[in-house]
Write a structure and sequence with these properties.
The chain is built from seven helices and ten strands. The chain has about 240 residues and is an alpha/beta fold. The chain is globular and about 50 Å long. The chain starts with a strand and ends with a helix.
């Protein structure tokens, strides 16, 4: 169980402090899925970085299985918006970075994760030689390599075309069902939130507060986009986002 207890995130100190997140409390059960959606610049990424241990909350705490989460560790993986690949390293080297940081290399390598992503044949290529979709899959492989308990994703499919985006959403769903990590996704895409979130927290304009939490029990199948439950959830999210704007 990952829990957020009254999280407040601020930038700066004293009278000049700017509040990005204001008193957010949420729970994600083991193997559960939560999507965070809200207006651009509302504080979604700040909240995700607090969960990742990259930002220390001014107030509140994040706990994993009842213990305070402090700093980045191998149990929590983060997939960045642009995949975060180093251009001077090969696909294999990029995917292996998470294991180096977790001090698990050479005890373990990212080969199995690359194979799962269908990337072994391009393991010696550099990021400039890859399509955008392949770059995102390398980022996923790097996150999977440490076998994390919690997978965090910060708008990982931004700027992709619709078909590529849906293929990788399908891949995320398949991986979540297979590995049963807890998934927390930040997105501005209403349909993406409805496809990948068992629960969707709708955030307000900055500072981010919870406006609504939408349950989405029908998600979990690859054909969900064509079902009435998906359409209804998209409609509920759209209405929740528009309230108070």
């Amino acid at each position: 169980m990952i829990e957020l207890h009254d999280i407040v995130v601020e930038y700066g100190n004293g009278a000049r402090a700017v509040r990005a997140v204001d008193g957010v409390s949420l729970k994600v059960p083991p193997g559960g899925s939560l999507a965070l959606i809200g207006p651009s610049g509302c504080g979604k990424t700040s909240l995700l970085y607090a969960i990742a241990g990259l930002l220390k909350p001014a107030v509140g705490e994040v706990t994993l299985e009842g213990k305070p989460l402090s700093g980045v560790g191998s149990r929590v993986a983060l997939i960045l918006q642009n995949a975060g690949l180093l251009p001077w390293k090969t696909v294999w080297q990029n995917a292996n970075l998470s294991l180096l940081l977790a001090k698990e290399y050479p005890k373990k390598t990212a080969t199995a994760a690359l194979e799962e992503m269908g990337l072994l044949e391009v393991k010696d290529r550099y990021p400039t030689e890859l399509s955008e979709g392949m770059k995102r899959r390398v980022g996923i492989a790097r996150a999977l390599a440490t076998s994390p308990t919690v997978m965090l994703m910060d708008e990982p499919l931004a700027s992709l075309d619709t078909l590529t985006k849906e293929r990788i959403q399908d891949l995320f769903l398949t991986l979540w069902r297979k590995h049963r990590f807890s998934l927390i996704l930040v997105t501005h895409d209403i349909e993406e939130a409805a496809f990948l979130g068992e629960r969707i927290a709708v955030l307000s304009d900055r500072p981010a507060r919870i406006k609504a939490v939408v349950d989405n029990p029908g998600m979990g199948e690859l054909d969900y986009r064509g079902q009435e439950g998906f359409i209804a959830t998209v409609s509920r999210l759209r209405s929740a986002l528009e309230v108070g704007r």
